[in-house]
Amino acid sequence: MNTSSRKPLRLALLGCGSVGSQVVRLLREQADDLTARTGAEIELVGVAVRRPDLQRDAEVPRELLTTDAVGLVSRGDLDLVVEVIGGIEPARSLILTALENGASVVTANKALLAEDGSTLFAAAEKANRDLYYEAAVAGAIPIIRPLRESLAGDRVRRVLGIVNGTTNFILDKMDTLGSGFAEVLEEAQALGYAEADPTADVEGYDAAAKAAILASLAFHTRVTAADVYREGISEVSASDVASARDMDSVVKLLAICELRDGPNGPAVSARVHPAMIPRSHPLASVRGAYNAVFVESEAAGQLMFYGPGAGGSPTASAVLGDLVTVARNRLNDVRGPGESAYAQCEVLPMGDTLTRYHVALDVDDRTGVLAAVAQAFAEHGVSIQTVRQEGHGDDAQLVVVSHRATDAALSATVEDLRARDFVHDVSSVMRVEGDS
Ligand SMILES: NC(=O)C1=CN([C@@H]2O[C@H](COP(=O)(O)OP(=O)(O)OC[C@H]3O[C@@H](n4cnc5c(N)ncnc54)[C@H](OP(=O)(O)O)[C@@H]3O)[C@@H](O)[C@H]2O)C=CC1
Ligand SMILES: N[C@@H](CC=O)C(=O)O
Fold first, then answer.
1. How many angstroms separate the alpha carbon of residue 205 from the centre of ligand 2?
2. What is the pLDDT of residues 261-309, one digit of tens each?
3. Fewest beta carbons within 10 Å, which of 98, 120, 168, 350?
4. Dihedral (Cα; 23, 319, 290, 90), 10-degree rounding
């Protein structure tokens, strides 16, 4: 039922997979509410897919499906386009064509925004159309709008969070059920959490793209995925998870973005890597595919955003929220805040970052080894917080946790230890975050 007297807004959907099919479902189930909130009916006029005959989670009238995505976004009568194909191409060309043809765009595509957001924002500005992307970071959690709008008058210093649902799901199951990596990854894929190529999740590319987007918004600069230091979870072993448990900690894949003083003024650092965090830290209780983002700003202090970080339905909720906003803007002939005027801050290298290391060494079981290990740390200016011996004889292991030092000094220490004759193996190295 059209509860508005205004002409319907014409919407094209690009992609109808995990997210797109839930967008279709919500558009249908909440049609009247959406019309009431927007001020006009949103009419779905086409859905671009690769395989039109595939069975989908939502019923899509066959006549709306097309494999001609270019033809769909070029038709010239669209008001709104939702892009949920993912990846760089053809998504970038399709979004640019949609904007050039007068449509406002909502996308969930963090990979594209983190690689070439500046081209897209410039195109949106030129076309005088909106480009919204709340779903691109942390699924259903409202984090883009708070950073772009609510905190625009404050100075954000740090953003720290768990922003990938798939890896959090895997690490959580490894910790709580002792599950194997491959088996849990398959489960995450079946639940629609993982990217089309799950390497993007497992190797930290997805989280790095989200970190780039968060850093850009938080610090009003342009940070790309290539600027973000990245390590994934493929090297995290059951024994790393067990070591964390011994320290009353858990392993999480963290994204950390900071505004720092650089040699030439304000500078940013952005990194994604697994880290041990104490079980008492709020991020340790983020379970399954949930995400959480802490924002620290000068005036507001600490803010925490928490919720489902992946999955078709939660992500579609964020897409629909954007859709209502851009539709309202469209009807009122206005645009939301643009991002094309961001300045360029220096991006600091990972080596300058202050962090702590947890290092497990298989060593000779003889007098003097402990002192020699402490000496190796001291030679790089790194002090040790705790050291613990586990096992004896051939199984002797030292587990060292450092105090805070630069990542460069810590990684040089580890390289140095690898070369020492009393060290048989450096069996585990992991950063420690979330406490002093
Ligand atoms: N899944 C999630 O939890 C989240 C995903 N996102 C982002 O949302 C986007 C979509 O993700 P998701 O739904 O999981 O991905 P899926 O792989 O499930 O769906 C992708 C859709 O795009 C279609 N498609 C692929 N290539 C083309 C093409 N060349 N032309 C037309 N259609 C094409 C596919 O068609 P067909 O079905 O015929 O194969 C499919 O319907 C991505 O950018 C992702 O990063 C963001 C937050 C969470
Ligand atoms: N693959 C992503 C989906 C949401 O962004 C994730 O697991 O977080």
1. 11
2. 988 889 999 999 999 999 999 999 999 999 999 999 999 999 999 999 9
3. 350
4. 90
- The SS3 of residue 6 is coil
Of the ligands numbered here, which is closest to the C-alpha atom of 191? Answer: 1
Residues 6+ apart with CB under 8 A from 3: 32, 35, 36, 41
The answer, yes or no, to whether any atom of ligand 1 lies below 6 A from the CB of 417, is no
* Residues acting as catalytic residues: 210
Strand 80-83 and strand 9-14: the pairing is parallel
Which residue out of 84, 163, 171, 195 has the highest number of ligand 2 atoms within 8 Å of its CB and is therefore the one to mutate? Answer: 195
Domains and CATH numbers, the chain: 9-139+313-332 (3.40.50.720), 144-309 (3.30.360.10), 351-432 (3.30.70.260)
**In whole angstroms, what is the distance from residue 314 CA to residue 366 CA?**
56
Spatial separation of the C-alpha atoms in residues 121 and 107, rounded to whole Å: 12
Write down the pLDDT at residue 179. Answer: 86
Residue 431 CA, distance from chain mean position: 19
Decide the pairing of beta strands 156-162 and 290-297.
antiparallel
DSSP assignment of 86-135 equals -SSTTHHHHHHHHHHTT-EEEE--HHHHHHHHHHHHHHHHHHT--EE-GG
- A 10 A CB-CB count for 291 gives 28
Report the predicted TM-score, pTM, of the whole model to 2 decimal places.
0.96
The amino acid at residue 281 is: H
Residue found by looking up tokens 């399954």 in the block? 288
How many Å separate Cα 428 from the centre of its chain? 25
